[in-house]
Amino acid sequence: MIKSAQTFSYLFGYLPFAAKNLAKFKKQKDKLSASEYSRLIHSEPQKWAGGIMKRTGSKVTVTGLENLPEGPVLFVSNHEGNFDIPVLLSSIPKPFGFISKKEVNKLPIIPSYMEEMNCVFLDRTDRRSAFKSITDTIDKLKAGHSVLIFPEGTRSKGNGLQEFKSGFMRIAKDAQVPIVPIAIEGTSRIMENNNNRIHSAAVTVQVLEPISTQEFSEAGAKAAQLVRSRIEQALGSLPSN
């Protein structure tokens, strides 16, 4: 209970400071290049996410950062738990937005940052919204922004890798950007496996080698399975598995 209270107190207690900094950042937007502004905006969520993870008492081990290429990429990660986003924001130095359910818009401050981070909001109950989220993500990537997607669509809660929805392949193909697979393990042990109470856990993040546009184009209909199998192989290589 103590870790839960500390984590959620920090999560929402930090927001007024984040709001002030966002106002400062926006004033600098016209003076900075797109990449400079992305790094500036990313610095605040990265700091916030790092503070959250510190208060959970978890240890995050990251490997493969040398695999991060220059330019926009589509990050494709498995989705284990609610702490996947804080873990990845605090661990990946390359600025990125992500696809999020529209309910997040009800939170204070956070949606404003997400818009500046080039996140995409999705209404899962509306097919038109799902289609628009794909086109919006393609546009973000074409504009030079990296985006993270969880093709499982829902959290596995540590119960094994689920099937990947293939829509992300169209996004990468149309945007002509490489895919960077990410294998994340251990986040479900922070919250989901503890009756939603926060416990410390060992978390691993593996940034895998990029898959080029040529490689997944040649894979054709098997491209989604190619990405999934690489993540599955990385997860299977961990000692706990």
Automatic annotation (TrEMBL):
SUPFAM superfamilies: Glycerol-3-phosphate (1)-acyltransferase
Coiled coil: none
Pathway: Lipid metabolism
Keyword Ribosomal protein among record annotations: no
Enzyme's top EC category: transferase
Keyword Transferase attributed: yes
Superkingdom: Bacteria
Entry-linked InterPro entries: AGP_acyltrans, Plipid/glycerol_acylTrfase
UniProt cross-references to Pfam families, sorted A to Z: Acyltransferase
Keywords of the record: Acyltransferase, Lipid biosynthesis, Lipid metabolism, Phospholipid biosynthesis, Phospholipid metabolism, Transferase
MF annotations from Gene Ontology: acyltransferase activity
Catalyzed reactions per annotation: a 1-acyl-sn-glycero-3-phosphate + an acyl-CoA = a 1,2-diacyl-sn-glycero-3-phosphate + CoA
Enzyme Commission code(s) on record: 2.3.1.51
Residues covered by the Phospholipid/glycerol acyltransferase domain: 73-187
PANTHER family assigned to the protein according to its UniProt record, in alphabetical order: 1-ACYL-SN-GLYCEROL-3-PHOSPHATE ACYLTRANSFERASE, 1-ACYL-SN-GLYCEROL-3-PHOSPHATE ACYLTRANSFERASE-RELATED
Domain notes: The HXXXXD motif is essential for acyltransferase activity and may constitute the binding site for the phosphate moiety of the glycerol-3-phosphate.
UniProt similarity note: Belongs to the 1-acyl-sn-glycerol-3-phosphate acyltransferase family.
Protein's recorded name: 1-acyl-sn-glycerol-3-phosphate acyltransferase
